[in-house]
Amino acid sequence: MSEVRQKGKLAKAASFQLTGISTEEKNAALERIAEELLNSAKEILQANEKDMEAGREKGLSEAILDRILLTEERIRGMAEGIRQIIALNDPVGEVLETIEKENGLLIERIRVPIGVVGMIYEARPNVTIDAASLALKTGNAIILRGSSSAKSSNLALVKMIHRALEKSAVPKDAVQLIEDTSRETARELFRLNDYLDVLIPRGGKNLIQTVVQESTVPVIETGAGNCHIYIDESADFTMAKEIVLNAKLQRPSVCNAAESLLIHPAWLERYGKDLLVSLHNQHVEIYGDDSVRGIFSQAKPATEEDWHTEYLGLAISVKAADGVEEAIDHINQYGTRHSEAIVTEDEENAALFLQKVDAASVYHNASTRFTDGFEFGYGAEIGISTQKLHARGPMGLPALTSSKFVIKGKGQIRP
Amino acid sequence: MSEVRQKGKLAKAASFQLTGISTEEKNAALERIAEELLNSAKEILQANEKDMEAGREKGLSEAILDRILLTEERIRGMAEGIRQIIALNDPVGEVLETIEKENGLLIERIRVPIGVVGMIYEARPNVTIDAASLALKTGNAIILRGSSSAKSSNLALVKMIHRALEKSAVPKDAVQLIEDTSRETARELFRLNDYLDVLIPRGGKNLIQTVVQESTVPVIETGAGNCHIYIDESADFTMAKEIVLNAKLQRPSVCNAAESLLIHPAWLERYGKDLLVSLHNQHVEIYGDDSVRGIFSQAKPATEEDWHTEYLGLAISVKAADGVEEAIDHINQYGTRHSEAIVTEDEENAALFLQKVDAASVYHNASTRFTDGFEFGYGAEIGISTQKLHARGPMGLPALTSSKFVIKGKGQIRP
Question: What are the Cα distances from residue B270, in Å, to B3, B242, B347?
């Protein structure tokens, strides 16, 4: 039996044991992990140094090396993250619906763990701790498949988790790491329907697209955000400018940052240059259509490709949109269903935009940067779903649960 | 462009229009369909007669021919079904969650249509009406891909729907029928991620497995039910017998019928023969393990295959299970996560069974036959989900919806 199937089987068996474990026992196990993590810092940092050396030898970029890097401070941050998860309410056991039938049957819909969660991710070894903690908190077993660039770190982290779980009520088989990081094991996970209930990719666009395109296991798609801001004719200049600068610049590398501006021609004529100069002064490269380049000559010509592009950096595409309907059509054509905003003083246009734009989060007069589990008050960062089934938008712990109908009778039969 | 992609594109465009259409307009369109259906009975029955002739020529079984057959009475039943859907509450627009942030942002999570639903199904032309009505009620566009054996009927039904929609606010492109019923078009639907938000198979086990195994579009898996009843040591004889006979015999061909009995050895010794004789007298073929055959010689020997088998007819597998834990393990190994029951007077064993059995519906002292959208009070029959994401168990209209965060601000930016 292959490593993936073997570990899948163990995780499945552990997931059945987990359904009998209480919130207190799960929290105690998480606290053990936090303690063991702090106690094992030296060993983990040594393992991480191996990954860093290998990465330097391979000539990985500074940005990627920084994602792989662990430090004492980062390890303390990871332990802090586990304790934040301990403090969250346990969603498992919540009664979602109660149906009392005339024949006396009591039907309750109750929140239960999903079972076995697969996580496939790149570089960052902190995802190992983060994902395992979230899974255990919600009573799920987890199969982790990290990248080769963080292999030693992930191995040391999962060994540490197993030591901690051995002192807890949670079976250590609940956390499985796939050690073989070849493409083959990823492909096996995509089709591990026998043991895996859901697969969550965390990483770049290519990883996510591969998982979506090749996986027969249900996927929760997270990530890509080609987010737009439409500035309507009646938009207040200062408000529009502040929202655009915030959404583009507060943290340009993340998925809820703005990547494209649509501007009503009248507003563009009146205020467009001021706005574009402000962006330009903050070193934002502007890719514009003809009307934009007509008022701001430093703008480069936008190609069809630009309307599709999530720059994740200091660049933005800008285009005139002749009214809210045209903006909606453009966004529904080019957007990635993540976060979309309108700035307007016209309530009717705002209502139309909020209703007709197809995205997980739609904003009126606010920055797209608010799309985030912590900002929404969920206290955890599982990811931001851009699909429509199961979970959409920032995901809290309930995204890692399913439900079950529990029916209690006194011998009722169907007439 | 292929038929599938072309119709996918039209359905997607229609789905955007549907977001602006009110409950009243959707209900009026459904009423138009009900009227047009009754008015077009003659034409539809003629088309159906063509399918019946072709089916007879091909030598299809009487059971399948009966599924294809439409009659005036069945058409009246279909119109009645549409009117029942009109009477249901529209879930779209429901506010699922309200978050007020300290900075004044108002975040609402609102129920919205999924977008474009794909339905791939066998024989029964009534699914065409049923699926289209449920989709339109929830503001979704739908792509229908029926089987070749009901091709003329489906074509006539969708033509009728288009005539009705032309007199309504709902765009007629919201309902698309794939006319080419070759395997190729099914395969294209499996990978139509650009236009299709979800794919729902309705039909036999092979169809469902093919869709699950080949589709990259998210699937809602429905159907297969290898349902067990575990009779515990303390089970009341009369109650156990009534539940078993009801679950096996009230309608043996459906997914929530019982297919396998697990019996505590002490109960088996005391009451087993009585129960098995009752089943035998109702012409149920019994496949038993050694202990079952020891008390009832007419039982045939059960093979490993029997524990996996959903007979969907007058047969049942029977086995001794030495206590609730053994029963739970057997069910979690062989069950299809549909409906599972325990009969016992022991509350502790009942609680353990309800918690640890992994299935959409778990029963204590009641027949598995209650797992049904109408029985649960949802008023519609979309199917019974046996998967864990998005929807699990009998699905009501909300299973055809997603949600969206709508955020209203006054210029808030992220600090």
Answer: 63, 17, 21
